[in-house]
Amino acid sequence: PKQLQVQLTLQIGRDMLTKVPLLAPEAHNDQFVMALTVALVPQIIPPFTVLFKKGDKGDSMAFVTSGSVAVVPTTFITTHDEEDIYFLLKTGSFFGEIALILGVPRTATIASLRRYANLLVLNEDIFRQIAADFPTAVKRMRLEAECRLTALNQGPEALNRERARRLLEAIGLSRMRFAFHQWLKFRNIKRSEER
Predict the structure, then answer these.
(1) CA dist 90 to 7, 18, 62, 66, 157, Å?
(2) Which of residues 20 and 105 earns the better pLDDT score?
């Protein structure tokens, strides 16, 4: 029974991690999966509940397991006008990672809509503990959070430039080697198209 419980926890954790691009690269690491899965706290969010407002201190991130929440303007708090929704976060989505990982204020206001939403929440204290135990995983998460923050501040076109620059930095390739690898990919694509 204990071994079955461990296997079930790992499978549930892996299933969740593979749906979250920020965490998917760590889905193969059993220790990371187990640490994260048992640390997540389930929460049921009633309809039209503001989870946090833009500018609030960020002390957690959350994963949507059912239902949905949305990025909304602060006026939504009083109007509940769903026409004003900026972005819908459905099952498998996550939010709050930028503030938690980078230690900056919340970048958006998040609220539930007409139906209940189920979340799994990762609190700051547990995140710091996981960060200490799995620095490589958190470095990757930090990189993605920084890219998302850049996109928010400078627009989506800056995201690709910033990701490419940080990727070069993270994996230590020189610009010339990176260009060579891109050329090889392009050549291989062209050859496969010619066949």
Answers:
(1) 27, 15, 12, 7, 24
(2) 105
